[in-house]
User: Fold this.
Amino acid sequence: MKGLLIVDVQNDFCPGGALAVPEGDLVVPVINRLLDKFTVVVASKDWHPQASVHFRHWPPHCVQNTRGAEFHPQLQTEKIQQVFLKGTRDKDDGYSAFEATNLNLNEYLNSRGVTELYVTGLATDYCIKASAIDAAKRGFKVFVVTDAVSAVNAKPDDGRESLQLMKAEGVTLVDSSQVR
Ligand SMILES: [Zn+2]
Assistant:
């Protein structure tokens, strides 16, 4: 069974947001086109408390129950069956969707019979990298949909290098046109 994981497609990670991925919003139409190809669709959200040691490393973003933490308004959220909240405590965590605290993502995917996980969303060089590698370590066959992810590129090659690192960890890189 194939599952689709949508990572952190939230206002704060899109242009105009507190921690914007320069072209973060461009993943939204690509993800929307993929939704109908999957029986299991889940999403993660960065979901931080107002005060967190995480904000020593990052400008405050995705604070619980704020507009910045909402999904991008164009994302077709009605197709999302379960949302996994991560970074919910006063801790520098929540890079991987598998760190969600409201529910166990690994157990959820197993219970739905998911063996192949397609990873999309933001950002390639942080939460996509952490989530995809975590999924591969947990035994899922992992695909990162390269036109459905976008990088911060604090250093210009960060996104490209992250994809290569994921590949080295057993992740398959695919274009959305290859997803059946
Ligand atoms: Zn965060």
Observations:
- The beta strands are 2-7, 40-46, 82-86, 116-122, 141-150, 172-174.
- The CA atoms of residues 129 and 162 lie 6 Å apart.
- Helices lie at 27-34, 105-111, 124-137, 158-168.
